[in-house]
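Pilot study result, target chain (379 residues):
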Amino acid sequence: MRKHIKMQALILAVVLLVGAVLYGFLYQADNKYTSALPGGYGYNVLPNDLEQVSFLVDGWEYYPGQLLSPSDFEGGIQPEYYTYIGKHANFSDFLGSPYGTATYRLTLENPGEPTELALYLPELLCAGRIYINGVLVGEQGSLEPYAPRVMDGVYALAVDGSAEIIIQCANYTHYYSGMYHPPAVGTLGTISRMLTLRLVVYGFLCFTALAISLFHLVQWLLGKDKLTRWMGLLSLAFALRVSYPFIRALGIPSVRPLYALEDLCGNLVLLCAVLLAGELSGSREHQYHRYGAVPAAAALCLFTVLFPLLILPYAPVFINLYEPIWKLPLSMENCGRPLLDFFGGARPFSGLGPWPLSSVCRRAIWSVCCRISHHRQPL
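Predicted structure:
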């Protein structure tokens, strides 16, 4: 018994160490905010090395409730607010509702030679126009008449001394609104490599999870083992959750149902993990699991479908209640549930495969699933 406890402790220590190293590496190598360009209020400055992707995070002029074109700024409009991208999840901080319009403006300074760059603009929520140096270079969806469409765009960016970027946004569809993900600048080659790597990573996550799901669901159909069923459904929900780059590439215009599906799949990962943990630890017969944890996780799944589809469109004032609730699985994961399983007498062997992995390892696996599921753009 003591030897088994020591082995569990060793596995836990290894998982924590590997996790810490992995998250530290991602923080340094895959973090938009640590790769942000320097600058000040209303401007960013390009680096000397243009072969690295840089992100336009800070210094944006922000005009909530207004759609301003380049001609409007010729009259010397003074900025009302400055913001960094990601600070405001939607327009409700200024407009009292996620629904409305806003304009973002930034000047990009180039201290070097004139250069041709590419501007990568991920999903404007949920429609927008992009002006560069006073010229309309692209649209995502339609502002007038309003037609939402979530898509990514790459636009030519010529910088000779300085370049002006103006982005108009409108949202009457989603609980996020405006420019929530920082744009990126770089040469066309560096932007292309970044997007290719992103698709490779998401492809690996998605199709590996689909293969795992198929393997376990077939095992369940042949043997009716609940462990393989929940593991198969967990993997399937995770695969659907991380498939959104491919769905976006198809240009599907159904914005509200697609986001509801993403939120639902993220919480289905939690529900399946709760059911899986109950089978592994033997707690499924306990009242706190049967009448507490499982119904709560199922209610979260139902909430993430009904609230954005049936309530927010007619009562957007409740928007600020939604995000903290649907992100609850990530908060629960931070509360140290793996330690409870570790000291709770989980079974060392299971029917999920030929190796005696502990519940701590399995909890670590679904922890990674939860974290990836609730962070939409790691690349």
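One observation from the pilot: Residues 333-379 have pLDDT under 50 and may be disordered. A full batch analysis is planned for the follow-on phase.
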